[in-house]
Amino acid sequence: MIAEIGHFTLILALAVAIAQMAVPMWGAHVRDARLMAFGDSAAVTQFGLLIVSFLALTHAFVTSDFSVLNVVDNSHSEKPLIYRISGVWGNHEGSMLLWVLILGLFGSAVAVFGRNLPATLRANVLGVQASIAVAFLLFMLFTSNPFERVDPAPFDGRGLNPILQDPALAFHPPFLYAGYVGFSMAFSFAVAALIEGRIDAAWARWVRPWTLAAWMCLTLGIAMGSWWAYYELGWGGWWFWDPVENASFMPWLAGTALLHSALVMEKREALKVWTILLAILTFSLSLMGAFLVRSGVLTSVHAFAVDPDRGIVILSIMMFFTGGALALFAWRAGALRQGGLFAPISREGGLVLNNVLLSVSCATVLVGTLYPLALEGITGEKISVGPPFFNMTFIPLMLPLLFAMPFGPLLAWKRGDVRGVAQRLAFAAGFAVLFTIIVAAMTGPGPWLAPICAALGLFVLFGAVTDLLSRARFGDVSQAEFLRRVVSLPRSAYGTALAHAGIGIMVLGIVGTSAYQTEKIVALKPGERAEVAGYELLFQGIQPTKGPNYSEQIATFEVTRNGAPVTTLLPSKRLYNAPPQPTTEAGIYASWTGDLYVALGDEQPSGGVALRLYFHPLVRLIWIGAVIMFIGGAVSLSDRRLRVGAPQRARSRPSAVPAE
Amino acid sequence: MGHAWRAVLCAFLIAAAGVGNGGSVAWAVQPDEVLSDPALEKRARGLSTGLRCLVCQNQSIDDSDAPLAKDLRVLVRERLVAGDTDKQVIDYVVARYGDFVLLKPPMNTHTMLLWLAPMLALLGALAVVVRGMRARPSVSEASAAPLSAQEKDALDRLLKPQVRDEPQA
Fold this sequence. Notes:
The structure holds two protein chains of two kinds. The model of chain A is unreliable at 300-305 and 645-660 (pLDDT under 50). In chain A, helix 5 packs antiparallel against helix 6 and helix 19 (491-516) packs antiparallel against helix 20. By secondary structure, chain A is of the alpha+beta class. Helix content of chain A is 64%, strand content 11%. By secondary structure, chain B is mostly helical. Residues 1-26, 139-143 and 163-169 of chain B have low confidence and may be disordered. Chain B has a domain at 29-118: Cytochrome C biogenesis protein (Helicase, Ruva Protein, domain 3, Orthogonal Bundle), CATH 1.10.8. In chain B, helix 3 (38-49) crosses helix 4 (67-81) and helix 4 (67-81) runs antiparallel to helix 5 (86-97).
């Protein structure tokens, strides 16, 4: 019964979305305030219906209702509650429901918080947003209904893939989706602006916070996935340039560019046409990510269950929205007037450079990801494009970006003084180089690129500090005045500095673990010792235990350093009951300088058990950096200037303006 | 478990070693494969990370636990022990398995576009930027332009409703 309610509300949501797609846009066209206002109530209603639908599916999972096919396929009564809940989106149908739910959330947010938007813009945005919802709701109801029943109901389900039964991975998809779907806001605003043929700073003021929120979620979502890969896969890798990773990374790169170009548009009314294009492309890349992953067209480890029919439908959805929006762009972009002139050396110029490098690197990842597919389609020839290609092409594009990053926020709008900025950054650069030399002398030889990258990471980090100090006019004013200024700096300034510092910190982590990790592969018998990076590990043996839905072999290692006890590591191997599948749980000890990482392998024919021991220097900084970026975004988002709507509030509601 | 979807979920499920190969936990190089000469072993690892496991999806033989990957790892080590240079080892493997085995595709007429793509994209982007900068007057020439007819219309449109609201005295 509850499943049917969920199914029914899903159909109702589709009906509402269809009305929401048509009525407000028509209202905007004929300037009928009542028709336009319909969009607001429709958006909220649609979201409400989707909540009910989502709760119905959640109920089926939590209560293990095995008369619902989706629950049978993806859940098991023994599973802990948290994974019964995460199982809701741990499968194709449920994830689509999450997708439309988030889409509805963003749509209703426009309706509720967008009162100060021009009425026609709001109506058009809601219409476009609803059209995306219609496409995905139709897709769900016709090919991927999560509420399908099965008769007779089996006694138990087949269980959720054990590698998904993990805290980081349970919340990885919602964040990733909030990111993907969040970019739909930028898309809807872009299309609405093209329909209206006008766009101004108010537009950017509106789009930027939403893009920022989406970007934050995507950043965290990607970081969670990377963190999970690090500790779960058993060899401490954190990024593999896998096509499906790339599928989430491309919207991130484009979204990062969009954040920066929208800034130029908001402050200076420049780069309008480009910002619109970028908004369209960012969401298109999100849709492409969904297509690539779901269709299984890429030979990716992610496509372990392939469903070409669904892939084709998603491809059609993607082509329709991307193609339609780009056609509209080609037709209407000429109508948008560019404003805001600036010299090449200026804050705007720096942001243009940021956009050039980010979009070129995004294009590089795109070509690298799709090239094997295209080549095979055209010539039948199979090639592999793997990490060596991406490292060789992506890193050279990132180096100038990192170098330019500290300059950007310090340059003045319109016309900057690059020499003055360089002087202000001299300390940051000096510290970065000095620090790198000291550390390089201590660690000994590594790849030649490593010290350069490390220095750049430090430069970005110190540059962010310099930015804050210089905004508070450190050195120019008295100490008391300086402190007063530090406190009263706008939060967006702190947000920028934090996000940039996060990048610098992440770079340090990447350099540390990529260039200086140590690895040891050994077979040990109980009582034997191994040594890695100054740590001595004593293998004490393996104990079998039982978890809630798995059996586990836990190995015990006493770790000492120079004879002093450090910790006990307990790496393990699990075998899940349903479905029967093994996973590894690495034993990790986090110190200030890096992670000691022990992964357990198979029993050896010669006796003993295979072990991989690693020391990953600074690896944690990768995710700490990502979290700092997220916090930077949140701080910036809390800036009142960003939240308060458009300065054109009065102009947008003519009736409320007293005529003087 | 037939749902493609899972994939999206784990944008990062490289995991696959375990999943894709249907069972054994991800575990690449085994202790008994490791060469006693550390210099040779280091070269072997370096070469392995650039060679694709042919039966896996997007994994190097260094990361994969598939039997075929193990065979290839052992093969690479045998060639190295026999005194081959890195290039000879790669050529030997490519002669047997084709370019598909290389994670870094070789530069040839078919991959030209792939390798040149970043450069072309960069040149294209710079060309657009330069054109954009040229097309507009520099900052110093900029002055407050008078309203265009279109803007006047827009202004009138915005002001009209207010006039309508006023009692037509």
